[in-house]
Amino acid sequence: MTRSVSFLLLGLLALSAALALPLVSDSRFLTLFLTQLAVMVTFAMSYNVLLGQTGLLSFGHAVYFGGGVFAALYLITAIGGGALALPLEFIPLGGALAGLAMAAVLGLVSVRRAGTTFAMISLGMAELITAAAMVFPSVFGGEQGVSTDRMVDVTLTGLGYGRPSEIYLLVLVWALVSVALMVFLSRSPLGRMANAVRDNPQRVEFLGYDPYWIRFLQFCIAGTFAGLAGSLFALTFEIANAEVFGLRTSANVLIATYLGGITYVLGPVVGAFVVLLLELNLARITDAWLFYYGLLFLAIILFAPRGLTGILAELPGALRRHGAAGCLRRALVWGPAVLSGLVGGVMLVELSYHLSNSFDPSDPLRLFWRDVDATNWGVWALALGACALSAALVLRARRGGRRPEVVVTPLVEEGS
Amino acid sequence: MDTFAFAVVNGLLYGMLLFMLASGLTLIFSLMGVLNFAHASFFMLGAYFAYQLSSIGNFWMGLVLAPLLVGLLGATVERYGLRVVHRHGHVAELLFTFGLAYLIEELVRLVWGRQPVPYRIPEVLDFPLFSIGGIDYSAYRAFMFAIAVLMFLGLLALLKRTRVGLMVQAALSHPDVLWALGHNVPRLFMLVFGGGVALAGLAGVIGGNYLVTEPGMAHQMGTILFVIVVFGGLGSLLGAFLASILIGILQTLMVAFDGTLTDLVVSLGAAAPQATGPFREIWTITPANLAPVLPYLLLVVLLIVRPRGLLGTRET
């Protein structure tokens, strides 16, 4: 009881913060960030309906997102041209319908198998749609894409939706409605049955349910909300090309969802937040940000399969078990090893990146607030030294204390 | 007719290259249950390693050393990566190899840059072997063919005639019994993963200068590769072989021929359609435009007709 109350309070707090922030500060950057966050959260939550709840690993979720994007772009243009008398606020319904229609058609073939086969089929479908979209520039606009203008006359509230803060409100409302609906659906009988199909499809079949139809329904739900997220994307950016269907979009949502933690209902929210923050800030600091991003993803898979939310949730338990002193001692043993490894690794990556990708390798490189020369061997020696120190510290820590515990839990069972 | 023959021969060669990758992938999958998403990335690493080695030494050094290096890297990945995530189930393993593919692509960009590298055919083999109807057939293609055939014969001999091959065959069906009999099954897994990945590296060495060595080659090759293993039936070597050759030849044939729906309509005696509106390109698409779509289209059709693939025996 207290848990749900605190949960509710936390949600209300976050909501009021989300509403108040753009009103308090007039920064366009912040408004755009929050708008993108709302889109990403909706998309990642819809992805987790498949991966976390039903155990279906998809490499083609961008197809349904893209369907929503293009449906919304054409709908907005139709409203703007006077061909359709639908208020702009209802555009996301069109996107959701497009996502649902595509998921219902492609899902019939896709969800016959779970596990690896499903993953490969989803990849094949995504490549099929992407390649086909490239063949039809009259619909998908080819390289330059399809664009539209969201400032139409037909609106419900009378807002013009020209300013970023106005479109932010619209996106936020739709994102909140979708997140609430998805949380509700995950607690509904269908959501529970989906969990059962994920964990033990044979047993579900014995109980008289058909795993195929449960997977199919979940697939449709995921497609619907992905389409909705796509239409929110279209409302925000007003332009898209066929690349939106591609593996990069699918990989992005997969990584965001997994980073956040797929075993928690609101894990994708955390993941979307972190990924967007990394995307916007890390990309400004370093050109090699995608490399760090991939490294973080691998580290999470190897060492924290419950994601960032899992780390946060297990922190109080670890504190209680080992006591404050024990935790501090562990931090002192492992901290320097991790830190020196990070510093050495980042130096190596930045140096080699500078050497192979800049016009003049002897240009000074800004590294840890200092200008260094990447062609000088001294910097390389320093970087390698930091890596060696880290390796030595890890070896010592392993011999000295026990290894850090790895929580052994079957994350997502493979269905048949 | 000559064009047709050349297209078939080239398609066969492309199919062989695909099977060099697909065989390792299938072997790893049927033994360990892991579909190695990063398989094509090791193919790419093979090409880049060979480029690097041939720029400091010569092509032959790359041919020998690059697959070995790739295999060593693969064995390390299995030992310290895959084995750790194995306890979290197959989905976690697939995710791990997916992350690995992502990382390797970025690593290649990091070290060798975004542009294609000038990895060239060795001069010794850079001459036309014979020519039919004015089209030259390069000696390097014949060399690739020979390498691919040699590799299959070697693999077959290894699987059927040696002790390690016997253990692999046993582990395919009953890994637990093999373990109980005192054989080191985890080490066998490591060897097979390293070996399969080394085959991909070899394909990269001889394919990298035939195709283009650039950071996008893994993604391009990888998606077709997965189509092949699902199409042939997951875990079936023969199925993978048939699918490789089929898709290789079909894709090359599509590029070699032209003609559009408009041409067809006109040749049937009707007036040429004046297409307007969305999807109007359907009248002017050539088979070459459709070549990238074809493998995926085939996959979807096959999955509707026969969900377990061409020669698949398992349900998943």
TrEMBL record, chain A:
It is found in: Cell membrane. It holds the Pfam family BPD_transp_2. Keywords: Cell membrane, Membrane, Transmembrane, Transmembrane helix. CDD domains: TM_PBP1_LivM_like. It is a multi-pass membrane protein. It comes from the Bacteria. Coiled coil: none annotated. GO terms for molecular function: branched-chain amino acid transmembrane transporter activity. InterPro entries: ABC_transp_permease, LivM-like. The chain crosses the membrane at residues 30-50, 62-84, 90-111, 167-185, 212-235, 255-278, 290-313, 377-395. One of its GO terms (cellular component) is plasma membrane. This is Branched-chain amino acid ABC transporter permease.
UniProtKB/TrEMBL annotation, chain B:
It is found in: Cell membrane. The keyword DNA repair does not apply. It comes from Stappia taiwanensis. Keywords: Amino-acid transport, Cell membrane, Membrane, Transmembrane, Transmembrane helix, Transport. Its main location: membrane. One of its GO terms (cellular component) is plasma membrane. The keyword Ligase does not apply. The chain crosses the membrane at residues 6-27, 59-82, 139-159, 188-212, 224-250, 282-305. It is a multi-pass membrane protein. This is Branched-chain amino acid ABC transporter permease. InterPro entries: ABC_transp_permease, BCAA_transport_permease. Belongs to the binding-protein-dependent transport system permease family. LivHM subfamily. GO terms for biological process: amino acid transport.
